[in-house]
């Protein structure tokens, strides 16, 4: 069975959901040609790869397969891949219409080593006459400045809940799946702007249970119960460090760090507390999420976060 993330992946820019301003810019580039080097920045699952692929298809048309190279920099992150595969593609002879160039797309480019990034910067300079580079990352902090300065930076944002909900309903109709609005709402709130994750969960619930309702969705996503998160929050305000440590030890093996952070964030948003303190809590949760994306150990990250939150309580 084909994953729905691929089955329902947009094939042109008109079909892309979210980030309307950037998509309009891409449409103008598709009409006029002469695409700049680009750095696409934003969280996973919001359409960075899909958008650049659609743009490349509209620019290159029949030459897409030969003129578009996609690499995941997490898997191919060293200098050899830059010197060999990327450089070989840049050297490849192709006849393209005026204003059109070969396109290389590097996903998760922040995972490339510093040496590889320096080599990439030199290749960008050397082959800019016939090749355009597009790169995607969750955060630009680990991208060297010489690469950033040579790119047009496009800041992608999370897809709005109503847009994800609309798309999931469309797919339920196409797949002839029975669904409840509460079931879809639970998926939408859980994925937090990540369309790819939403499609994966929708397919998982459909394949496993055949119906999208709240009970079946809860079985698939296995997010922490509100009672657990509220208990942790109460322990923070009471500054009971040992109890917090024990509670976290019990749940880190049951739920993902991402799910614990997201559930805690949702509880904090609705909790009655001083507004200044609430903002400080949310700021620390945001920092923790960034560090998690960068590869921090989940258990250590949570222990550190909850210790910091205790110190914020006066």
Low-pLDDT segments, ≥5 res: none
Looking at CATH, which topology of the largest domain would you report? Rossmann fold
Order of helices and strands: HHEHHEHEHEHEHEHHEHHHHHH
The CATH level-2 architecture of the largest domain is identified as: 3-Layer(aba) Sandwich
> How are the strands of the biggest sheet laid out side by side?
2-3-4-1-5
| Sheet with the most strands, sense and barrel status | 5 strands, parallel
Work out the helicity level.
55-70%
Corresponding CATH superfamily of the largest domain: P-loop containing nucleotide triphosphate hydrolases
Report the strand count.
7
How much of the sequence lies in strands comes to 5-15%
Indicate the CATH class of the largest domain. Answer: Alpha Beta
Question: How far is the first residue's CA from the last residue's CA?
Answer: 55 Å
What is the C-alpha radius of gyration, as a whole number of Å?
Answer: 22 Å
Alpha-beta classification:
alpha/beta
Tally of alpha and pi helices: 16
Give the domain tally.
3
Shape, per Cα inertia axes = globular
What is the average of the pLDDT values?
Answer: 91
Overview of this protein structure:
The protein is of the alpha/beta class and about 325 residues long. It has 3 domains: about 150 residues, 3-Layer(aba) Sandwich (Rossmann fold); about 60 residues, Helicase, Ruva Protein, domain 3 (Orthogonal Bundle); about 90 residues, Zinc Finger, Delta Prime, domain 3. Helix content is about 60%, strand content about 10%. The chain has 16 helices and 7 strands. The strands form 2 sheets. The chain has a 5-stranded parallel β-sheet, with helices on both faces. Strands 6-7 form a two-stranded parallel ribbon. α6 links the parallel β3 and β4. α9 packs across α10, α14 packs antiparallel against α15 and α15 packs antiparallel against α16. The longest helix is centred in the last third of the chain and has 19 residues. The chain starts with a helix and ends with a helix.
């Amino acid at each position: 069975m084909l994953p729905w993330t691929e089955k329902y992946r947009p094939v042109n820019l008109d079909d892309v959901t979210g980030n309307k301003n950037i998509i309009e810019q891409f449409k103008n580039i598709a009409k006029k040609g002469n695409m700049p080097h680009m750095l696409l920045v934003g969280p996973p699952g919001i359409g960075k790869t899909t958008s650049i692929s659609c743009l490349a298809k509209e620019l290159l048309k029949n030459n897409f397969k030969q003129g578009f190279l996609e690499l995941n920099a997490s898997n191919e992150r060293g200098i050899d891949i830059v010197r060999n595969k990327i450089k070989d593609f840049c050297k490849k002879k192709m006849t393209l219409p005026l204003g059109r160039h070969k396109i290389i797309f590097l996903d998760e480019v922040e995972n490339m080593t510093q040496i590889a990034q320096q080599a990439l910067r030199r290749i960008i300079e050397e082959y800019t006459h016939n090749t355009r580079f597009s790169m995607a990352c969750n955060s630009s902090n680990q991208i060297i400045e010489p690469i950033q300065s040579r790119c047009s930076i496009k800041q992608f944002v999370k897809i709005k809940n109503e847009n994800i909900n609309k798309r999931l309903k469309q797919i339920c109709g196409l797949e002839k799946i029975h669904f409840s609005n509460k079931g879809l709402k639970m998926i939408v709130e859980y994925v937090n702007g990540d369309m790819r994750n939403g499609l994966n969960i929708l397919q998982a619930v459909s394949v496993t249970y055949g119906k999208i309702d709240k009970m079946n969705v809860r079985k698939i996503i296995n997010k922490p119960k509100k009672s657990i998160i509220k208990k942790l929050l109460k322990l923070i305000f009471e500054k009971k460090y040992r109890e917090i440590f024990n509670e976290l030890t019990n749940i880190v093996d049951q739920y993902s760090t991402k799910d614990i952070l997201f559930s805690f964030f949702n509880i904090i948003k609705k909790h009655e507390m001083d507004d200044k303190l609430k903002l400080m809590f949310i700021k620390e949760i945001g920092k923790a999420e960034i560090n998690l994306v960068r590869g921090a150990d989940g258990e250590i990250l949570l222990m550190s976060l909850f210790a910091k939150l205790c110190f914020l309580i006066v």
